[in-house]
Amino acid sequence: MTPFVSGRHFLQTPGPTNLPDRVLRAMDRNAINHRGPAFGALGLAVVAKLRQVFRTGGTVGIFPASGTGAWESALVNTLVPGDRILLSRTGQFAWLWEQMALRFGLDVATLETDWRHGADPAAIARVLDHDREHRIKAVCAVHSETSTSCMTDIAAVRQAMESHPALLMVDAISSLGCIDYQHDGWGVDVTIAGSQKGLMVPPGLAFTAISGKALAAARAGGSRRSYWDWEPLVAANQTGFFPYTPAMNLLFALDEALTMLTEEGFPRVFARHARYAQATRLAAAVWGLDLQCADPAAYAPGVTAIRTPEGHSADNLRAVILERFNMSLGNGLGRLEDRVFRIGHMGEIGVLSFTGALTGVEMGLRAAGIPHQAGGVQAAMNFLASAG
Ligand code: PLP
Questions:
Q1: Cis-peptide, bond into residue 14, ω within 30° of zero
Q2: E strands of 215-353, at which residues?
Q3: Which of 262, 291, 306 is the last residue of a domain?
Q4: How many CB atoms lie within 10 A of CB 338?
Q5: What are the strands, taking DSSP E only, across 16-96?
Q6: CA 76, CA 210: separation in Å to the nearest integer?
Q7: Which ligand 1 atom is the nearest neighbour of the CA of 144?
Q8: Is the separation of the CB atoms in 148 and 336 below 8 Å?
Q9: Domain with 229 in it: what CATH number?
Q10: For residue 381, how far is its CA from the centre of ligand 1 (angstroms)?
Q11: What is the pLDDT of residues 161-190, one digit of tens each?
C-alpha cells in the first residue's frame, strides 16, 4: 500500500505535463453547440494561434486523438503500401512510427542509431544520393526523441534532402512549444504534434501542419482513409467547424493555453525551457550520472533522460521517489527500460516547483542507495538564481 504523502503530486513526466490553473478553468464550462457561431469563432481562433506555434501559413489540422493518430494521418494521406520511406531509428518513438509504417505495408529503409544521438543528416544525404530513381517517397524524423532526450536538426535534414522530391515528415510531439520550430522556414511537409506536452493541454488532441506539396500528394493519391483524411481539415481551416463532434472542452483549454504562450512571448517560453533543461544537466553532472543523450548539441529542451549506474535499477529509483516524495518521473522505454529515468521540464513549471522536483530526485538517489555526489540541486539553484 502506498503510504499517505501530503502535498500536491509532482508530475514531472515528459507528457502529460502540468496544467495551468487558467487552462483548467477554461475547460470547466458547459458544452456549446458545435454547429453554432460561437464554436466557429473558437475553431478559427485556435487554428490562427496554432499557425503561430508551428510557424506556418498553411493548413493546420486538429484531430480528437493522441499524437499516434496524427502519425497515421501523415502516412495514409500521402503513401500507398509498397512505397519506400527513410526513417532514422533514433529511439523508441521513431521505432514505434516505423512499426506503424510496416503495418501499413510501407517499405521502410531504416538508419540505425545508438539512441544517444539525433538523426545523422549526412547519412540521410548518402541514402538519398543513391536513390537515383526516387523510390523514397518520404523522410521521417523525430525532432525531439522523448525516450532519449536527443534532438534531430530538422533544418539540416532538409538540407541533406537537397533536390530529392521525398516529403519531409517530422514528429514534433515533444518539441512544439518548447523550442523554436519552423514548419515553413525549414521546408517541412508534415509536422505532427500533440496537446499534452509543451502546449500545456490535457491529452486528447493531435495536430498536423501540412505543406502545399503534401496536400497535393494527398489529393493525388495516398491510401484509403476516412477519419484521418486531410481534406475536411482544409475546410475546417476556412470555417472553424469540424466534420464531427469536436473535443470541445479540450479546444477551450487549447485556446487558453495558446493565449498564455502568446502573452508570455515565444522567445521567453523557449528560454524558460532551455533554463530548466540546463539546470537539470548541471544537477546530473554533480550527481555524477550520465545523460542518455551523448551529444551536447542535441540536448532536448523538454526532457532529460538520465542513466543510473550499471547494476542500479532506474525503475526502483522512480518507485522510491513516487512512494516517498509523491513525484512521478518518466520511465525508460524500449531498450532503455530500467536503464534511465526521465525528468520532464516542459510546459507549466515555475522555478521553485522545478527546484523542488530536482530536490526530490536527489533525495530519491540517496533513499534508493544509488551512488552519487550530493550537491546537484545546489548547482541547479545557483544557475537558476543567476540565469535571466
Ligand atoms: N512521438 C513522440 C516523440 C512522443 O513523445 C510520443 C508520446 O510521448 C508519441 C509520439 C506518441 O504520442 P501519443 O502518446 O500522444 O500517441
A1: no
A2: 303-307, 327-331, 340-344
A3: 262
A4: 15
A5: 59-64, 84-89
A6: 13
A7: 3
A8: yes
A9: 3.40.640.10
A10: 31
A11: 999 999 999 999 999 999 999 999 999 999
pLDDT class for 95, splitting at 50, 70, 90? very high
**3-class DSSP state for residue 205?**
strand
Run of H or E including 178 = none
Kindly state the average pLDDT of the residues 356-360.
98
> What are the pocket residues of ligand 1 if the criterion is a CB atom closer than 6 Å to any ligand atom?
15, 66-68, 93, 142, 146, 171, 173-174, 194
> Rounded to the nearest whole angstrom, what is the distance from the C-alpha of residue 173 to the centroid of ligand 1?
6
Sheet with 136-142, edge to edge strand ranges? 59-64, 205-210, 190-194, 167-171, 136-142, 84-89, 107-112
Residue 15 alpha carbon, nearest atom of ligand 1? 8
Residues 252 and 185 in one domain: yes
Residues 101 and 220 in one domain: yes
The Å distance, Cα 67 to ligand 1 centre, comes to: 5
- pTM (two decimals): 0.97
Nearest to 235 by CA among 65, 68, 49, 60: 60
C-alpha distances in Å from residue 375, one per residue of 10, 72, 282: 21, 45, 10
Average pLDDT over residues 344-352: 95
Domain span including residue 379: 10-18+265-387
Q: Which three cell numbers stand for residue 299?
A: 540536448
